[in-house]
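Entry 12.
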Amino acid sequence: DTKLVFDGNTLDFRIGIDDGTDKIEIGKGNAHGTTTHMTFDTNGIMDMPLQPAVFAHLASNQSVANTSVVKLSLASEVYDRNNDFDSSTNYRFTAPVDGLYFAIANVHTTGTQDDNLIIYIQKNGGDLFRTRTHASAGASMAANTTGIALLDADDYLEVFVHHNFGGATNMTGSKEFTWFNVHKIA
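Predicted 3D structure (tokens):
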């Protein structure tokens, strides 16, 4: 392996070519394959294995009362690269570092009457992105909202839903229908 090691005060960093993978690797420490922060393969494709990214979803149907704004209990994860999503208590993504984060949420239900379904992504308890969809009685429907959020470390994002179908209705629990993605992009 060919590499340069930068000797820091308490940590060392390296950049070099890993002979085993033929990738340029940047990471913490002085040995390739340990605490890798970024790699570039022979085609120029970059991998950032520590970049914050999460895909969470409803594990089962969640009942939402008429005219209530309710946080989605996104208790299942397809991936959570750095454990930045709390899927057991608060159902929220917490930014580990300052940056721009791409966020998108989707909810699915069957309308019980002709009215509105609203999905929100909230930042630190206040609305950030919101989309309203009009439903037809008995029709299967989905609503989603998306945006790029400027987050400071420890800011958090949560997903809420509201409807006025006249009675309680279930948000469909599955990774295909009711979900939340957050990825740090810059």
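Annotation: The first strand starts at residue 2 and ends at 7. The CA atoms of residues 65 and 168 lie 4 Å apart.
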